[in-house]
Amino acid sequence: MSNNKPDDALSEAAIYSVDAYISEDYARAERDKLWRKVWLQAGRVEDLEQVGSYITYEILDDSVLIVRTAPDTLKAYHNVCPHRGRRLVDVPEGERNGSGYMRKLVCGYHGWQFDLDGKNNHIPFREDWGDSLTEACTSLKPVNMDTWSGFIFINLDPNCQPLKDYLEPAASMLEPFQLQNMRCRWRKWGVFDCNWKVAMQAFNETYHVQTTHPEFNQYGSFRGWARAQGELHSNIGYDTPKNMDGNQAAKLRVGEAADPRISTAEMQVYTWEKANTNTTETLVNAAKRLKDELPEGTPATAVLQHWLKSARADDAARGVHWPEVDPKIVGESGTAWQLFPNFQIGHAVNNMLTYQARPHGYDPDKCVFEAAVYELYPEGEEPKPAWKFCPPTEEDWCYVLSQDFGNMAAVQQGMKSAGFHGPKPNPYMERTTAIMHKNLAKFMGEGAPIKLNGDNKPE
Ligand code: FES
Ligand SMILES: [Fe+2]
Questions:
Q1: Ligand 2 centre and the CA of 371: distance in Å?
Q2: Strands 105-106 and 99-101
Q3: Whose CA is nearest to atom 4 of ligand 1?
Q4: Distance separating alpha carbons of residues 92 and 81, to the nearest angstrom
Q5: Which ligand is located closest to the Cα atom of residue 113?
Q6: Contacts (Cβ under 8 Å, ≥6 apart) of 73
Q7: pLDDT per residue over 336-373, tens digit each?
Q8: Is 62 in a helix, a strand, or coil?
Q9: Is 277 exposed, middle or buried (0-12, 13-18, 19+ CB in 10 A)?
Q10: Measured from the CB, is residue 112 less than 6 Å from ligand 1?
């Protein structure tokens, strides 16, 4: 399949209703129809270091407690006491989620106790119930949980399909990148003034780059594709520039300006300093050396190959080994995957950037937005950054992300205008957004995109 060929039913121009973004009824319906039916990314395996380590995952009215119950076993439970329904583990005020270590679980209300496997092992004055209390009614209720690529996923639907099946083809196509070996460099979250879909869609296409991030235009113009992947997911990437045959070029956007040695270095330095994502210090330093290591006139493909080879060697020398990934897979996997409904992974062989957004209560105008960057570290040197609460400012998130945030609240408000009929995403570069609505409609029973036909208005 060529990068340039539309490969799904949404290759035609489409339009869809704004209800999914601004309707409170829709936001309420999402709880049962969407959030309680899908696999949700809830944390990283390395967050649960020892037996007894736990984290919580919060999604609207549900809180899930994830615990390491044995050196190689994680389990998830509804975070609620079966006695009278108190949350078992509280999320401390101002924190993203609960986390810590426990030998056993004790409810703070009347003192019911549970072992790490969720089984009740103490009830004060148990005899008062006679023989009415069974193990089933006094144990914690399990939640489906599985891991993939170092991420913990939960699913509130007791009858859900297996995680790996749900994630295909992303699960297989991203497997060679060995994302489970990466560790977090920073992770931030905030409460933003837009629907969770507006936040996710600020990052699921490349069409906005030329206008929202004009600084990147000086490094070359790169047209981006977007494709449906499997039943629910999608991915995006860059078309390979005409004079460049390496698949990796499309992925890494090596500068295609007059002197690719210089533009590659400039783009790397800009990305490192102004976005703080999608690259590593090793890649930046290797790019800075290109003008000394290669003669003037070296073609872009050769510049790219030299740059990656020397960065790979630099990392290997400090004990950081990038996986070898078939160039065909690198090309087809693109730059980022949108895992339905609310998780995006921007993957590479030595780093990744993830975005996630969840509703913030039932206010359709608000969401919890999160981003994290990961890379490969020498063993024993991995940082363990906590989730940092950050308002959507340049100071807190760096310049490039603040450019993206600058659109979010304005889109949320603009979509409420009496003069706006519905989004009309670019059928090639922004198809991911239409794909998301097509898939949302499978769960919600409404809001599927329809063919754009002049100034038509979707129901
Ligand atoms: S609600 Fe937990 S012990 Fe009563
Ligand atoms: Fe952006």
A1: 13
A2: unpaired
A3: 110
A4: 18
A5: 1
A6: none
A7: 999 999 999 999 999 999 999 999 999 999 999 999 99
A8: strand
A9: buried
A10: yes
Res 15 pLDDT > 90 = yes
As a whole number, mean pLDDT of residues 300-318 equals 94
- Name the residue of 81, 122, 138 whose CB sits within 8 Å of the most ligand 1 atoms, as the mutation to test its pocket: 81
Ligand 1 pocket test, pick from 77, 88, 109 with the greatest ligand atom count within 8 Å of Cβ, gives 109
Phi, psi torsion values for 248, nearest 5 degrees: -65, -25
pLDDT of residue 252: 52
3-state DSSP call for residue 201? helix
| CA distance linking residue 411 with residue 194, whole number of Å | 8
Dist CA 103 CA 115 (whole Å): 8
126 Cβ inside 6 Å of ligand 1: no
Report helix, strand or coil for 22: helix
Beta bridge partners of 63: 58
Nearest C-alpha to atom 1 of ligand 1 is from which residue?
84
Q: Residue 394: CB partners within 8 Å, gap ≥ 6?
A: 402
> ∠ at Cα 401 (441, 47), nearest 5°?
75
Q: How far is the centre of ligand 2, averaged over its atoms, from the C-alpha of 290 (Å)?
A: 27
Q: Which residue did the predictor score with more confidence, 215 or 19?
A: 19
Q: Is the pLDDT of residue 181 over 50?
A: yes
In the prediction, which pLDDT does 456 show? 87
Measured CA to CA, the distance from residue 155 to residue 410 in angstroms comes to 33
Torsion of CA 305, 149, 270, 251, to 10 degrees: 40
Share of the chain above pLDDT 70, in %: 94
Query: The tokens of 54 are what?
Result: 């736990």
pLDDT at residue 241 is higher than 70: no
CA of 325 from ligand 2 middle (Å) equals: 26
Distance 42 CA to ligand 2 centre (A): 24
Q: Which two three-digit tokens encode residue 322?
A: 């990038």
User: Angle between the 300-317 and 260-274 helix axes, to the nearest 10 degrees?
Assistant: 50
If you measure from the C-alpha of residue 110 to the centroid of ligand 1, how many angstroms do you get, rounded to a whole number?
Answer: 5
CA distance linking residue 303 with residue 293, whole number of Å? 10
Query: What is the pLDDT at residue 457?
Result: 87
- The protein residue with its alpha carbon nearest to ligand 1, atom 3, reads 110
Helix (H/G/I), strand (E/B), else coil: 18 = coil
Does 5 have pLDDT greater than 50?
no
Instruction: Using DSSP, state whether 310 is helix, strand or coil.
Output: helix
The ligand 1 atom at the shortest distance from the C-alpha of residue 84 is: 1
pLDDT in tens, 129-152: 999 999 999 999 999 999 999 999
Burial of 395 (0-12, 13-18, 19+ CB in 10 A): exposed
Among the bound ligands, name the one nearest to the CA of residue 205: 2
